[in-house]
Amino acid sequence: MLEIGSIVDGKYKILNKIGQGGMSIVYLAMNERANKPWAIKEIRKDGVSNYEVVKQNLIAETDILKRLNHPNLPSIIDVIDCEDTFLIVMDYIEGKPLSEALNREGAQPQEKVIEWAKQICDVLGYLHSRVPPIIYRDMKPSNVMLKPDGNIMIIDFGTAREYKSASLADTTCLGTQGYAAPEQFGGQGQTDARTDIYCLGATLYHLITGHNPCMPPYEMYPIRQWNPNLSSGLEEIILKCTQKNPNDRYQSCAELMYALEHYGELDHEYKVKQNRKWRTFLATSILTVVSLAVCVGFKVAETSTTKSSYTQYLKNAVSAGTIEERIENYKSAIYLNPGEAQGYIDLLNKAFLDDDNFTQDEAAKMTEILGYKGSGNRTCESYLEADKEAYDDFAFQMGLAYYYYYEGSGNQQMSQAWFDIASASDTLDSNKVERAKRLGRIAGYYANLHSSNKAGDSTTTYKDYWKDLTELVSGNLVEMDNVKTALVMYNEVVYQIGQNPLSFKAAGVTSEELTAQLDKTQSRLETDIIVLNESDRTDIENLKEKILGNIDWARTQVNIAYTDRGTDINSKTGGTKDAGTGEND
Fold it and tell me: What keyword terms does UniProt attach to this protein (predicted)?
């Protein structure tokens, strides 16, 4: 046990103990040189009968967290192997676990639970989109930290694992009984993304009802049996999450996220109201015809005023002094005329993507705006959908925002949902439709490359992945779109070559094919990337340099993979996934 006041590794001063579990103690420490607090988890090597299991869980937790980059996940800074203990130095998370809120207050407010659910769903979606996917497997209130700003952090990766398609029955009693899915116990099958969806559903059940699924009656009833005032839509979501058969649950976090964002539309009361509106339609139609002649003059004046105010909000946004003012003006324009597309497009491109980074908060704001209901009790998104051409274009741009610009290394699952809309469009430019199809397929690969069907056959291969990657960057991308989009697409294919050469090799892709694509990309950078606007020159040149550096790194990785030098090249440092910000994946 570490002594309070002692110095660890010559730089971390132990301040006090802040937590203790079955196999570890967590301390608050201070790096006095940097004046920054850290958390240090101490795991003793002796005194545990299942030391090898503990050791493997520890190794899994540290290995996984080192490779992740998400605002709702802690970062590991250092791992210190002492004589009697392992010490893990990680981000200090200010806040309390949701289990404490349950113990102190009981059932939590519905709106808060839904907001937490969206954040957790976003984290799980990020984990599942890694290659290979990471299955968390131990979602429960005590593993979710609530920070003072209202955001959450997911902790404790001791039971997480990377998805292995060959493992038919991988789990015996890993997870927490009551929250864990049936397939996590007794060798009942492979855990996958749907396992985490079950655990999240059980966690939401506990948070919204205050009844612990680990305690009697050991069953999860429809939540409105505990509180009739709760949303029937949320009840439906939790019931679907916690189905015993994984095939009956939501099949991805993207599906679940959509349901959470539209839970009100699943409410029984909402459906009844829609039916009532339809029954009154005929009666109101007659009244409308009679009133039309009187109203038309007023309507012309009202439309003119609305259009004028809408345009003014857009102008105010452009001249706004702060990003917050800009967002508020775009939001006001959208709420004034939710069927007009320009406000949404400008909000996305001129406010949220102004710094080439689509943050979690910005994504949440966009979701909130799309789901906002005015006096007509229709969401803004439903108004925009009425203009199919505008909605399809917006969907395409939202897909790009999630795929390329979402903080960390992208949110491929959320991008896929928007690309699916764009790829079905009959109004978009054919180049955009084709790109949406390819990007949607590639986004799907992030979750499917390592999954298998019931017969044990892979549902997709790296050969398929390679074909779509190369098609994605065929032709002159600058002419087809623009310089910035071309650069991020070139960086994507280069990064994937450098990150996955062993997998491409196993799928039958030759080293000559990989090298030829790198040569072609380098040539495109030299011939197609022309700066027309001097104000963009520095940014574009910096992006080119980063991609050229990635090309050199990728060539090295390919050479190692195809000459059999080393067996774990993907663990080597290199390659910048985010060509815009330089963040490593």
Answer: ATP-binding, Kinase, Nucleotide-binding, Transferase
Q: Which neighbouring-strand residues pair with 134?
A: 162
Cα separation of 206 and 99, whole Å?
9
441-494 per-position pLDDT tens digit: 777 776 565 444 433 344 457 888 898 888 878 888 777 767 877 887 888 889
- Return d(Cα 148, Cα 246) in angstroms, integer: 35
Beta strands in 106-166 (DSSP E): 134-135, 144-146, 152-154, 161-162
CB 333 within 8 A of CB 307: no
Exposure class string for 528-551: b at 16+ Cβ within 10 A, else e: ebeeeeeeeeeebeebbebbeebb
pTM above 0.70, yes or no: no
- Coil, helix or strand for 5? coil
Q: Give yes or no for residue 30 having a pLDDT over 50.
A: yes
Inside any domain, residue 583: yes
pLDDT category at 351 given cuts 50, 70, 90 is: very high
What is the span of the domain harbouring residue 255?
A: 96-272
Query: Rounded CA gap, 310 and 299, in Å?
Result: 16
Q: Give the DSSP H/E element, type plus range, for residue 76.
A: strand 76-81
| Rounded CA separation 162/501 (Å) | 19
Peptide bond just before 217 cis, omega within 30 deg = yes
Into how many domains does the chain fold? Answer: 4
The pLDDT assigned to 389 comes to 93
- The answer to whether 505 is annotated as binding is no
326, 352, 386: which is the final residue of a domain? 386
Tokens read off for 88: 């893990």
Residue 406 domain-assigned (yes or no): no
